[in-house]
Amino acid sequence: MSRVAFIGIGNMGWPMAANLLKAGHDVAVCDAVPERAGRFAVELGGRGCASPAEAAHGAEIAITILPTSKEVAEVAEQIAPVLPRGATFVDMTSGAPHRTREIAAMLAERGITTLDCPVSGGVPRAKSGELSIMAGGEDAALDAVEPVLRAMGTSIHRCGPVGAGQAMKALNNLVSAGGFLMGIEALLIGQRFGLDAAKMVDVLNASTGMTNSSQKKFKQYVLSRRFDSGFGLDLMVKDLTIALEIARETKTATPFSALCRELSASAQALLGPGADHTAFAQLSERLAGETLGGGNR
Q1: Which of 16, 65, 66, 272 is most buried (most C-beta within 10 Å)?
Q2: Is 137 inside any structural domain?
Q3: Closest CA to 268 of 236, 229, 230, 220
Q4: Which candidate, 43, 42, 60, places its Cα nearest to that of 6?
């Protein structure tokens, strides 16, 4: 059993922290929304704390899963003085690798080891404890925290030094977004040709066109018109921006990736704050003058 501070109990963090409790770990939680930590403690157990420093005081492991690396850096500054030497800071945010390396250097001066361990699988797999975890950092440190990570995910992929996990996550989401957009355009073409969009999804899932989006997003969130997967379009744009920053740093030409990022940013501007990433489909629908599942715009 480890003493864990879990900072950021939003859509993903709440079920992840809940799974740590189920695994028997001593968990203290806090969140930017003041009442959320108290509600978590009442409903599930653990300790609800008013600040990151309170949650992290004396913790062996401090976990963050926050919107961006900016918030992570602010939290790291707050908790560094209260974490004991030898503690491990595990950032599960889909963050910027270069910023994470700066945070790691700051914490190393206090004898605190940093790992970056962003996740994939969305809210459903966060709830079931079946997340895919992309880890960056020293093997010895990852060995030490693996029991904690295993309470939240079923596959841990060691990607390299600190920052490598977040680089892999950004590139994973780039591939996911590209597949989603291409799939939506294919469904629009097919529907205008006279094909049934739902049947098209079935064929894709039985053929070489199968993707995570065809399996888990098109029917569930687009054709249903729910657009409520739990992962925001703003976060997707952030991840694609990070991927393109890595491309620039490595001097890699990425014309399709750049277009995908610009289209996602256009969808964000069109739909406004709070849109789900699956609502990205609505940009393609408007450009085509067609609504998937029936009814023209």
Answers
A1: 65
A2: yes
A3: 236
A4: 60
Q: Are residues 141 and 125 in the same domain?
A: yes
Same-domain check for residues 108 and 172: no
Residue 1: pLDDT over 90: no
Tell me, yes or no, if the pTM score tops 0.70: yes
Q: Are residues 208 and 193 in the same domain?
A: yes
pLDDT in tens, 117-139: 999 998 999 999 999 999 999 99
Phi/psi for 109 (5° steps) reads -65, -20
Range of the domain at 157: 3-162
Using left for φ > 0, alpha for ψ between -120 and 50, and beta otherwise, residue 183 falls in alpha
Give per-residue pLDDT as tens, 98-118: 999 999 999 999 999 999 999
User: Which tokens hold the place of 275?
Assistant: 């849109």
Name the residues annotated as catalytic.
169
CATH number, residue 108: 3.40.50.720
